[in-house]
Design goal:
The complex is a heterodimer. Chain A contains 20 helices and 10 strands. Chain A has helices spanning about 1-30, 40-60, 70-75, 80-85, 90-110, 120-140, 165-180, 185-195, 200-230, 240-265, 270-295, 310-335, 345-380, 385-405, 415-440, 445-470, 475-485, 490-515, 620-635, 645-650; strands spanning about 515-525, 525-530, 535-545, 550-560, 560-565, 570-575, 580-585, 585-590, 590-600, 605-615. Chain B has a domain at about 35-120: Cytochrome C biogenesis protein (Helicase, Ruva Protein, domain 3). Helices cover about 60% and strands about 0% of the residues of chain B. The chains are: A alpha+beta, B mainly alpha.
Chain lengths: ~650, ~150
């Protein structure tokens, strides 16, 4: 019953997507007339996607094990939150979520399309084409509504790692809101290629969707890093794992696009480059889905086991060939004519930023797919791991940070050295003093020193700019500072994000360079002293919860005379899963985190072995990440109010 | 304060601070990088997807960490330890692939991309540079902007 409802709703969404593509392109050919014919397909797409997601949730919530997806990803004991989240814990369900988000964006785009809007209807048609692929997958290779002939009494449950933390319920939807959101600028870019529209209309119109997608993608990556740190127990937040890289790649190119879009809006440059960036970003989201969902990462031989891998790979090739083919034939129609006056200008720094971000993305892409391609063609297995990525990422990031420091205060068109010096004089002093202070404080790593100095440059240059801009206003200084954001939300939202990036950079440099790992074995009542901390094993604990069993150690942590509290690292055992999952315990301090991960707890529990990690300044990483996200949100919500608009409103037009 | 004094102070502060950094860094004893930690971070734990021996919590990784400690204590060079692991577990034990042979492209392609990018940016055809604004014009523009941005 639920299965039939699910399949019927997916079929409705698929039919609507086909109708949307057909009516959209027909309206495009007629010069954007007949947009009312698009309303029904858009509503059908949204309704089908919502009912499909709803049917899957109902099946999970009612323990309907006649569905294979439910039987494989759910048990009767699974708590409510993880039951709901099970809808995107595995491949088929995550494609349903993908479709729902896509339908939501299609609906949002449709609201902005009026009669005679050629570019808008073509964009909706492109979204329809993307929808055909994903809803088509749901009916074929990745069907979540397949029923079982023999209905089991209980399911086997999702991967325990996915049931361990509340973040599992939040992280994937955030990531998908980001991933799928990139479809909208892609659709508008293709539409402007089809229409040969060389104006910046598509950029103006997609600004909000691009910022929405970018902000959610950033948040999704941040939550993923946090989940990895809080749940996985290996003591890190980033491992250059192919699955992580899959989310980082479109983030890099989307970040490049957010910046180069500014150049195009302000100076009319880089039109063709922007189109290429957007097509590339969308292709990278499909590549990411392919990497994470086809099994190709575990082994190139596993991906042909289901039709999902080949289907996604085929779609990726189609996007690349069609997107860049269209770009090759029609790119000259959208290419812009204004040329760079001088490399020493805001545009020049934007170019540097784009060059570095594109290079960064290229390096990560090569490192991620090289082992798979090599193995697929020669059968040879090689690894590309953190040391290789770090070697490329560190210098590129440092130059990026440097550009971040002086870019936002560099004038457009041509920057005279005198103006740059005047604006950087104060910040450069702060930078040099900061470097001297951390050197005296004992930091000897040149990378950490440089990172800290550049972060100081970024923040102090922004503060100086805010100060002088506010001071030049005729209103009182306090009011002027408050009004800065409203005067140019895009710019100041971006500056908030830059401050966040600077904080994240400091945290990454410090936590990566001054971390430590020790392994201690303790009897009950015994203490160990490490790096000024005292860990006392006061005894084991057991906890029977309805869907899992915890066995762990209660550790009392003190530093000097002050007690820092009790930590309970544990091993979590799920029914039907052989391997126990480590659940770390973290004490967050201003100076550093103390991170305990249980390695072994012996029979009789008299003795435990624990990994003790120290990670400096981790709170700054999470705080900085949230600042970046809020910078994106601030850019989104504010709209630059031009005096003419305000005047028009004032006179009541 | 006049501009000249400000510039002088700024130059002095920057020069002095950088001097402090150089003296501190030069005066600190050369760091003896922990060879065991370095080796453990560039060798993959053979049973893991992409984690190093240093970062993996698996039992095998712990045992191999001990193996590295023993070999280093016995006086093996880094290259000897690495060669031992490659011969035992295969080439994919190297998380930092070598710059030659089958993984040469991993090193060549990024460099080519960087060079191509720099050439693409610097060779963009440029219009003859417009002359910078006269000082008086700049003041007029700024005054106009101020006037526009005031509520």
């Amino acid at each position: 019953m639920i299965a039939s409802l699910g399949i019927a709703s997916v079929a409705l969404a698929l039919a609507s997507a086909i109708a949307l593509a057909v009516t959209g392109f027909r309206a495009f050919i007629r010069g954007g007339e007949g947009t009312t014919s698009l309303r029904l397909p858009v509503w059908g797409l949204l309704a089908g996607a919502i009912v499909a997601m709803g049917a899957l949730e109902i099946a999970l919530l009612t323990d309907d094990f006649s569905l294979r997806y439910v039987a494989e990803n759910h048990t009767r004991d699974t708590p409510l939150l993880f039951t709901i989240a099970a809808a995107w814990a595995a491949l088929e369900g995550s494609i349903v979520l993908w479709g729902l988000v896509l339908a939501g964006y299609a609906f949002w785009v449709h609201r902005s399309v009026g009669e005679g809007d050629r570019i808008g209807v073509a964009a909706l048609a492109v979204i329809g084409l993307v929808g055909i692929f994903f809803f088509g997958m749901m009916l074929t290779a990745a069907n979540p509504f397949v029923t079982l002939a023999v209905v089991p009494a209980d399911g086997s449950g999702a991967n325990p790692l996915l049931q361990n933390h509340i973040l599992m319920a939040i992280h994937p939807p955030m990531l998908y809101l980001g991933y799928v959101g990139m479809t909208v600028p892609f659709a508008f870019a293709i539409a402007s290629l089809l229409g040969g529209d060389s104006t910046t209309v598509w950029l103006e119109r997609t600004r909000r969707w691009t910022l929405t997608a970018w902000t959610f993608l950033t948040l999704g990556i941040l939550l993923g890093a946090w989940w990895s740190y809080e749940v996985l127990g290996w003591g890190g937040y980033w491992a250059w794992d192919p699955v992580e890289n899959a989310s980082f790649l479109p983030w890099l190119t989307a970040t490049a696009f957010v910046h180069s879009a500014v150049v195009q809006r302000r100076r009319g440059m880089l039109q063709a480059w922007n189109v290429a960036l957007v097509i590339g970003t969308f292709a990278l989201t499909i590549l990411g889905t392919f990497l994470t969902r086809s099994g190709v990462v575990a082994s190139v031989h596993s991906f042909t086991q289901s039709a999902v891998g080949p289907a996604l790979l085929g779609f990726l090739l189609l996007v690349l060939v069609a997107g860049f083919g269209l770009f090759a034939f029609r790119g000259h129609l959208v290419a812009s004519t204004p040329r760079l006056d001088s490399l020493a200008s805001r545009e020049g720094v934007f170019l540097l930023n784009n060059l570095l971000l594109a290079l960064f993305a290229f390096v990560v892409l090569i490192g991620t797919i090289y082992p798979m391609i090599l193995e697929a063609f020669t059968g040879d297995r090689v690894s590309v791991g953190a040391p290789w990525f770090d070697r490329a990422a560190v210098p590129i990031s440092l130059v990026l940070l440097f550009a971040l420091g002086f870019g936002p205060i560099t004038p457009y068109r041509q920057a005279r050295p005198g103006i740059l010096w005047e604006r950087l004089r104060g910040p450069l002093q702060a930078t040099a003093v900061a470097a001297a202070l951390v050197a005296v404080a004992g930091v000897r790593s040149i990378t950490v020193l440089t990172t800290f100095a550049l972060a100081t440059l970024i923040i102090s240059a922004i503060v100086r700019q805010a100060h002088f801009t506010a001071r030049s206003r005729p209103t009182s200084y306090v009011r002027a500072v408050g009004g800065l954001y409203r005067s140019d939300p895009g710019y100041w939202g971006g500056m908030v994000a830059h401050v966040g990036v600077a904080l994240v950079a400091i945290a990454i440099a410090f936590s990566g360079s001054f971390d430590s790992r020790d392994t201690v074995t303790l009897e009950v009542g015994e203490s160990a002293r490490l790096h000024g901390y005292t860990l006392t094993y006061s005894g084991p604990f057991f906890s029977e919860q309805d869907h899992r069993t915890l066995i762990g150690a209660t550790i009392v942590l003190t530093r000097g005379e002050s007690g820092l509290g009790t930590l309970q690292p544990a091993l979590t055992q799920y029914p039907n899963q052989v391997q126990a999952v480590p659940t770390p315990a973290v004490h967050t301090g201003l100076r550093e985190d103390v991170y305990l991960s249980l390695v072994r707890i012996e029979e009789g529990t008299a003795r435990v072995t624990i990994d003790v990690f120290r990670f400096p300044l981790m709170w700054l990483l999470w705080l900085g990440g949230l600042v970046v996200v809020s910078g994106g949100a601030l850019s989104f919500f504010g709209r630059r109010r031009l005096r003419s608009e305000a005047t028009l409103e004032a006179v009541g037009v | 304060m006049s501009e000249r004094v400000r510039n002088g102070v700024a130059g002095a502060v920057i020069a002095l601070s950088l001097g402090v950094v150089v003296i501190v860094l030069a005066g600190s004893p050369p760091s003896h990088a922990d060879r065991v930690a370095h080796l453990a971070s560039i060798l993959k734990c053979p049973v893991c997807a992409s984690e190093s021996i240093a970062s993996s919590p698996s039992d095998l990784a712990r045992q191999l960490h001990v193996v590295i400690e023993e070999r280093v204590a016995e006086g093996w060079t880094d290259d000897e330890v690495i060669a031992f692991f490659v011969s035992t577990y295969g080439d994919d034990v190297l998380l930092d692939p070598p710059g030659g042979g089958r993984t040469a492209l991993l090193w060549v392609l990024p460099m080519l991309a960087a060079v191509a990018g720099v050439i693409a940016v610097t060779s963009r055809r440029r219009r003859s540079a417009t002359p910078p604004l006269e000082e008086s014009d700049r003041h007029r523009v700024e005054a106009a902007l101020r006037e526009r941005e005031s509520p």
